[in-house]
Design goal:
heterotrimer, A alpha+beta, B alpha+beta, C alpha/beta, A: alpha+beta, Ubiquitin-like (UB roll), Alpha-Beta Plaits, 2 domains, five-stranded mixed sheet, three-stranded antiparallel sheet, globular, B: alpha+beta, Arc Repressor Mutant, subunit A, Glutaredoxin, four-stranded mixed sheet, 7 helices, 4 strands, elongated
Chain lengths: ~240, ~160, ~550
């Protein structure tokens, strides 16, 4: 079987990838890293965090690299002053949205939001920071959720539905009030559907879901979704 | 499902009419709220079982849409339209007056459960702004005085 | 029931109507009902009997004529005499003088002929003239003759060609060419195909679609039928806000009537064409009007927009090709088929053809529903049709396009209303809201109000709209409470531009419009709020006062 390929330019580099590949993957496979928070290989794309926005020449609009497929002759720019400015803005808005205090966070030093802020040189937050007082649920034997640290990327919800297949997690309410819930907004400890598989903790980019008493560096394993997906497709070799 | 509760039987029929399709969730929630006045967790669990949907999905949908109520509303309901036309014409002042008079906030019910104060985004009666709905009656070109008088009247009737 | 039978119904109905010398149209739409329209209707029925003129005078329950502020409104034909503020007590006098003695009651007639003069009623052609609960009324006015024409003489491609020739653009907001959209869905692979008619008019201050559905529901259904024939769809969903009970009732009845005349169903007019319409109810989510969110909602999920591509034309409802169209667009279709696309393309401006319905509200003398040709100026709408600002106050701004529209100052009043001109000045056509503001309105407060609206209505999926708008709202709180610094203006501007450019769907992309336009045209008011802590309209800095009152 032959796959049709597409040739395009990413940051001036000519790359050839299979048709239907998303820009983000095409870039990554060629050594160009575009920042993301919500996207995770092995899970359906979400297009929510807006960090992977890129420019495509010929259009004034910005395109999320995670869900924009490549096309022949496309010229993609992943780094520009405007894009960096916008990525900083996104990080600042996320940092201001809920209670993010790195020094008292379980994920300190192992947090994707924190490391993005560092990489992008975010040294202050333009907005007044909001100190939220959302419920912290530690009723489960070992899984803990602190919704004040959640950035609503929904990786946990997707991994629970698409990989573990139980759909214990979902969002309630909407907009800035959205929160991750278990079943009918039950305490985690009394959830009937949760299999305690820990995948939600493994893929959480921040310190919102973690395992009590276990170092976050040990828990985090965000490639788990891609790993399981590939194993299910019987792709043993990488 | 309890067959003694005729509302529950009616709801079951509506679900059956929709072939227990997942996509009918909104229609089912509408019907359930119409029958029960609000959606409690037991009811949502039931619906989730009947339509074979994850409970968290059902809860997520029910809380996404502001029309669905998860708490028992007051016996009487005052709904203020806060659409643009009504806001420009002073709906906020009327709502503040009701809040002060009954010491409740928007979205709340009085402790005795007699009165709920809700907000809606535009009922489409903009040319007669501001509009306030007391129970089922739409008060057009409302003023503070008329609304407070009307609330007094419906509360007095119970 | 076949193609020829529709013609027969039309002829019968016209004969039936001819037997009457007068027709009294009582507006019974959502605007007039709270003001007592049903009592007026009953009074008319009794009064014509009392004077023994029931054989020559038909009393009909109709939809809206547009003059919602002076309801209940009653129109007497022939001559289109529009009576305003009709009460049951005055009905006897109207029947006695106008019908029996032939002397219209001058004192009660609507006094603003200018309100109608500049309007052009295409979509609302039947509004206020027919009884929306009788399908025969619609058929008598030439209704369903367009679908008959399509089925009898046109190919689906021919229908699409005609719509493309008309240069009709979608009335839901973005203004995408309708013919082009139909072509995309018609060519898309995958079966079945679906149509979703959008009546989720969530813009606060807009009631054009509701009025259309209440006044002429069959025009929407006929538009859906024609679209279905053109693109090859078998099933349509009409998504309507649950806040519109009367419109829902009217549509439910219309669908049942259309089914009974086999205009909907497995074998439409015995031609083998199959199409059915099902109503779906919204539940209070503004974002559900967005085209991918409405799909999620029809599927019974949280109305969260999803990224495009894939476009709904290829992958919409349950992954199948889907045409999503606003009901106002659909109501234009039958007249385009009847009169031809070339005829339609001459109305309005060359790039924006046809008309647009607007809800005219706020500080205007003649609030109501209007339909104007594209290209009319804002000044004509605000001052000629709207009759200016009441109580001798000064015009300050006009807000075009709902909560994500723009606030335009008097310097822009001569701007023609069309998609491109509005976008250029930072507003949008949106679903057609025009709110007039006078000098009692504070522009900072207005922008804050709309931002709060969009914060509440954001679905929460993407960072800029969810987290960003909420930050803007806090900056506004600071400005209107006296805790702001000059740099906050820059923050507002930067954040707004970011949200506009980076958001996932139309809600986030347009939500900063009120902020950006007020900053552009009324910047000095922001400066006054921050520097002098004063609000010239007297709306802001009220916090302490409220505290004292309580």
């Amino acid at each position: 079987m032959t796959t049709t390929t597409v040739t395009l330019k990413i940051d001036g580099l000519e790359v050839t990838v299979p048709e239907g590949t998303m820009i983000l993957k095409a870039a990554k496979d060629n050594g160009i890293i575009i920042p993301t928070l919500c996207n995770l290989e092995g899970l359906s794309p979400y297009g929510g965090c807006r960090l992977c926005l890129v420019e495509i020449s010929g259009s004034p609009k910005l395109f999320p690299a995670c869900i924009t497929p490549v096309s022949s002759g496309m010229e993609v720019t992943t780094k520009s002053e405007r894009l960096t400015e916008y990525r900083r803005m996104a990080v600042q808005m996320l940092l201001a949205e809920r209670t993010h205090i790195c020094s008292v966070c379980v994920a300190n030093d192992h947090c994707e939001l924190q490391s993005l802020a560092n990489q992008l040189g975010v040294d202050h937050v333009l907005f007044e920071r909001k100190w939220t007082n959302l419920e912290i649920d530690s009723s489960h034997d070992f899984l803990v959720i602190d919704r004040n640290r959640c950035i609503l990327c929904t990786r946990c919800i997707r991994v629970c539905d698409e990989i573990e297949g139980v759909h214990t997690l979902d969002l309630k309410l909407r907009g800035k009030d959205s929160q991750v819930i278990m079943d009918l907004d039950e305490h985690w400890g009394s959830s009937c559907s949760c299999t305690s598989c820990r995948k939600c903790a493994k893929v959480c980019p921040v310190g919102a879901i973690y395992i009590e008493g276990e170092p976050v560096s040990h828990t985090k394993h965000k490639d788990i979704a891609e790993f399981i997906t590939e194993r299910r497709q019987r792709k043993w070799k990488r | 499902m309890s067959k003694d509760d005729s509302r529950r039987v009616i709801l079951e029929k509506v679900m059956r009419d929709h072939g227990y399709q997942e996509s009918a969730l909104l229609e089912i929630l509408h019907k359930a709220q119409e029958l029960y006045g609000y959606l409690d967790k037991e009811l949502l669990m039931d619906i989730s079982g009947s339509l074979n949907l994850p409970p968290s999905h059902v809860f997520g949908v029910a809380t996404f849409y502001s029309f669905f109520k998860l708490k028992r509303p007051g016996q009487h309901v005052v709904t203020g339209c806060m659409g643009t036309a009504c806001y420009v014409k002073g709906a906020d002042e009327i709502m503040q007056a009701v809040e002060r008079e009954y010491n409740i906030k928007r979205g709340e019910a009085t402790p005795d459960g007699k009165l709920s104060l809700l907000v809606t985004r535009c009922i489409g009666a903009c040319a007669m702004a501001p509009t306030i709905i007391v129970d089922d009656e739409v008060i057009a070109k409302a003023t503070k005085e008329i609304v407070l008088q009307k609330i007094k009247q419906v509360l007095g009737g119970t | 029931m076949n193609l020829a039978d529709i013609q027969k119904i039309a002829e019968q109905e016209v004969d039936f109507e001819r037997a009457y010398k007068y027709r009294i149209n009582v507006c019974c739409s959502s605007g007039c009902v709270p003001l007592g329209a049903f009592k007026v209707l009953k009074a008319f029925e009794e009064a014509v009997k009392e004077f023994g003129v029931e054989k020559e005078c038909k009393v009909a329950k109709t939809g809206c004529v547009g003059t919602c502020s002076v309801g209940p409104a009653v129109v007497i034909e022939p001559g289109d005499y529009l009576y305003q503020n009709v009460t049951p007590e005055k009905v006897r006098e109207v029947v006695r003088d106008h019908i029996v003695l032939g002397l219209p009651v001058k004192g009660m007639l609507y006094g603003n002929p200018a309100f109608f003069k500049k309007q052009h009623r295409l979509v609302l052609r039947n509004a206020g003239k027919i009884d929306p609960t009788r399908i025969q009324d619609y058929i008598a006015m030439g209704g369903y003759s367009a679908i008959v024409k399509c089925l009898a003489t046109m190919t689906p491609q021919g229908v699409i060609y005609e719509v493309a020739t008309s240069k009709l653009r979608g009335r839901g907001g973005a203004g995408f060419p309708t013919g082009q959209k139909w072509g995309l869905v018609a060519r898309a692979h995958g079966k079945p195909k679906y149509i979703v008619a959008n009546l989720d008019e969530g813009d606060p201050g807009v009631f054009a679609n509701r009025t259309l559905a209440e006044a002429d529901p069959h025009a929407i259904l006929e538009g859906m039928l024609i679209a279905a024939y053109a693109i090859g769809a078998e099933k349509g969903y009409l998504y309507i806000r649950s806040e519109y009970p009367l419109a829902i009732q009217t549509l439910q009845r219309a669908i049942a009537q259309a089914k009974s005349l086999s205009l909907l169903g497995d074998n439409v007019l015995e031609t083998g064409f199959k199409f059915d319409v099902e109503l779906r109810f919204g539940a209070g989510a503004f974002v559900a009007g967005e085209e991918t969110a409405i799909l999620a909602s029809v599927e019974g999920c949280r109305a969260m927009p999803r990224p495009r591509p894939p476009y709904p034309a290829n992958s919409g409802l349950w992954g199948k090709p889907t045409l999503i169209q606003n009901v106002e667009t659909l109501a234009n279709i039958p007249i385009i088929i009847q009169n031809g696309g070339a005829w339609f393309s001459k109305i309005g401006t060359p790039r924006c053809t046809g008309t647009k319905c607007f809800s005219l509200t706020g500080k205007t003398n003649n609030p109501g529903l209007i339909e104007v040709p594209m290209g009319i100026t804002l000044r004509e709408v605000v001052f000629d049709i709207g009759g200016g600002v009441p109580e001798g106050r000064k015009f300050k701004a006009v807000l075009v396009g709902g909560p994500s529209g723009g606030c335009l100052p008097d310097a822009l009043l001569d701007l023609p209303i069309d998609y491109d001109s509005l976008t250029r000045v930072g507003a949008i056509m949106g679903s057609g809201g025009i709110v007039v503001l006078d000098d009692h309105s504070c522009m900072v407060d207005t922008a804050k109000f709309f931002t709060e609206f969009c914060v509440d209505e954001s679905c929460g999926r993407c960072t800029p709209c969810r987290a960003g708008l909420a930050r803007i709202k806090e900056v506004f709180a600071g400005i209107t409470e006296g805790n702001a610094r000059m740099e906050d203006i820059t923050t507002l501007e930067k954040a707004s531009v970011y949200i506009r450019d980076a958001s996932l769907c139309g809600l986030g992309q347009t939500a900063p419009n009120p902020v950006l336009t007020t900053l552009r045209y009324f910047r000095d008011e922001y400066v006054e709020h921050i520097r002098d802590k004063t609000c010239r309209a007297g709306k802001c800095f009220k916090k302490e006062e409220k505290g004292v009152e309580q």
